[in-house]
Amino acid sequence: MSDLVEAQAVAAGADAATAPALDPDTAAPTPRRRGRELVDLVGPALAFCVFVGFWYVMHYWALRAIWDKPDFLVPPPHTVINEAFVDTERLTEMLRATRFTAYISLIGLGIAILVGTILAVAMAQARWLERSAWPYLVALQAIPVIALTPLIGSIWGTGPVGRIVVCVLIAMFPIVANTLFGLLSADRGQHDLFTLRNASRSTRMFRLQFPAALPAIFAGYRIAAGLSVIGAIVGELFFRRGEKGIGILLADYRSQNQVPEAYGAMILTAALGIALFVAFGWLAQLIVGKWHESTRKTG
After folding, report:
1. What homologous superfamily is domain 76-295 in, according to CATH?
2. Residue 199 CB contacts under 8 Å (≥ 6 apart), including other chains
3. Domain segments of the chain as ranges
4. Is 201 helix (H, G, I), strand (E, B) or coil?
């Protein structure tokens, strides 16, 4: 009888050992998890309400009471919505301009990703290149891009090519910095394991360093995505020629004292930057998955 009980206990232990572990994302939600999900929903909504409330306070009280400025400088949100987005003709004009700016931003961002990633890989492989390139990269980042814009316009023109060059210059630094940081941050023990296996430099790069660097790489891409929009806007504000992007439209509204329309253009610009930032966040989650601690949900 005791042998039978012992055999059943051993079998139960084996079943427990071989049973698949429960995925915390598919397990039944705990009160703590439900509370966190509620906070994740309520927090952004509350922040948005505070932002809109502050906007109304600025228009109806703060501008005149604190700074003695006319209230038309900060029109209320409902005025911006009515004059910039309810008017179909105005909205169509702004959406067309935003689409062109997005086109310039995406091309510039794509070139910056390609050049910046290749440069970071080369710098990770050759220390002399890292030491040689960093001063110029930092100098390029330190110089205001608006100071380089006249030179860019003289060389590449004031059309789309010149604007793309501005996007590349302003977006490339965070890509190089984050990619290089990620490539050089691979675990030393894993490096030793690859050394014991006599792995080639290319194998070490693509089997160890690149997978370990992916979270940092995508963090750089997300930063560069917003900067590429800024670069496109800066190019449009300075060149003011060719097809109208949202930057040229914003300058036109400002010069014609169309303040609500100018705020509407700024809202669309912000929405474009947020959309690119969220898109790269989703892409990072899709590629990196849940294997890295930066993408895990603690709970």
Report:
1. MetI-like (1.10.3720.10)
2. 207, 208
3. 1-74, 76-295
4. helix
Q: 133 to each of 116, 137, 139, how far by Cα in Å?
A: 12, 6, 10
Dist CA 219 CA 40 (whole Å): 21
pLDDT of residue 259: 93
Q: pLDDT: is 156 or 288 the higher one?
A: 156
Would you say 271 and 92 are in contact if contact means Cβ atoms under 8 Å apart? no
Q: What is the DSSP code (8-state) at residue 118?
A: H
Q: What is the pLDDT of residue 120?
A: 94
Q: Which residues are CB-contacts of 124 (< 8 A; sequence separation ≥ 6)?
A: 130, 180, 183, 184, 205, 209
Per-residue tokens: 234: 């800066």
Total residue count of the chain as it appears in this document: 299
CA distance 130 to 120: 8
For residue 218, count other CB atoms closer than 10 A to its CB. 22
Give the integer Cα–Cα distance in Å for 137 and 21. Answer: 48
Distance (Å, rounded) from C-alpha 163 to C-alpha 55?
32
User: pTM for this one?
Assistant: 0.80
pLDDT at 229: 93
Give 218's contacts (C-beta < 8 A, 6+ positions apart): 280, 281, 283, 284, 287, 288
